[in-house]
Amino acid sequence: MKTFASRFTLTLAALGLGLGISAAANADSLDDIKAKGTLVVAIDPTFAPYEYTDDNGNIVGYTPEIMKRVAERLGVTLQYQKMSFSGIIPSLITGSVDAEGSSLNVTAERAEKVLFTVPFGKSVNAVMVRADDDRVASEPLTVEALSGLSAAVKATTAPEQLLKQFNTELKAKNLAPIKLVSVDSVDQTLAALMTRRADFIFDDITVLGGLSKQLPGKLKQAGELGDSQWISWATRKSDQRLNQVINDEILALKQSGELTQLQQQHLGVTFDLPSENFIPSK
After folding, report:
1. What residue intervals traverse the membrane (predicted)?
2. Which terminus of the chain has a smaller tally of CB atoms within 10 A, N or C?
3. Of 259, 237, 238, whose CA–CA distance to 248 is shortest?
């Protein structure tokens, strides 16, 4: 998920940026969005199958299908602004964009800075290895089984942070840590695994499912680790009306069954999603 797969956690330093926030970023912007006729959305389209760029340069996937319907509900044109994942929430907070369209793991820390929409996905992280590698063999999978191995992981994401937590646990048990091979994209994690720079990929289960389709028969999942999280979008806290429009569209798609169809089409899995009480406590 983006799974998942996520996603996908920005550093607290990036989240905490507060300087230079414009006055527009502190006001409800729904009327301005409708007046200009454009919804400008920040996105890092490197998180297949949630959001990614196809061979023709189009931003496609599960979440762009939902965002397209949000723009239709608003009666405006959807305009994506591509950027690195680490810059998305700072750009949102400072008012550089109207909304963000990259899948975010819902966390208590992020909820202090932004206003989450209702979830549209679920994330749980898992381990993927080469099909001929039997070193990760514990059932169920344990953190100890990964001791001394190297992990390909996308930088500044929830999976990377979880691996760092695992290393703290391994150190406490006097076990060798997991070596982190942090890269910029999901495709680079696959390259690191197949060129043997890494022993396994650690990412959302939906993301790993997408990678398996690229190399059928050459990869296998070795199990899940860590807690599951909901996946959502976020708006500025001041943009409660825009947030509600997005919520209304997600819930309408859920009610009609179209959201389930989109999940099956793009993710290969379906989720029973909450509409309230989904933000975890600290």
Report:
1. none
2. C
3. 259
